[in-house]
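Progress note, sequence design subtask.
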């Protein structure tokens, strides 16, 4: 598990909204609540820890972006995100301005 987390740490990056748009179009972006650790969520998804992932979904701590969120992001082209690719998903957390 530690090796996986180390690999994910290397893939953790900052992304601009423009970079995420093609991934939004492919419906693979997952918004992670700031109360969760992005690496922990990535590790759970990569390790097929279904119970953890289902719990976060049921608690609305991870979800596809809403239409309102996408509209909001479209109005702020400088919006930044912490981003982690866990194939086929792109996990994101909004960064404070």
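Output:
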């Amino acid at each position: 598990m530690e090796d996986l987390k180390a690999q994910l740490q290397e893939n953790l990056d900052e992304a601009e909204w423009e970079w995420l748009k093609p991934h939004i179009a492919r419906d693979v972006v997952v918004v992670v609540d700031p109360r969760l650790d992005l690496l922990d969520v990535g590790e759970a998804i990569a390790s097929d820890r279904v119970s953890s992932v289902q719990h976060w979904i049921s608690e609305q701590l991870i979800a596809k972006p809403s239409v309102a969120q996408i509209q909001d992001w479209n109005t702020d082209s400088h919006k930044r995100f912490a981003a982690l690719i866990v194939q086929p998903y792109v996990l994101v957390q909004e960064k404070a301005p």
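The radius of gyration is 13 Å. Work on this subtask will continue into the next period as scheduled.
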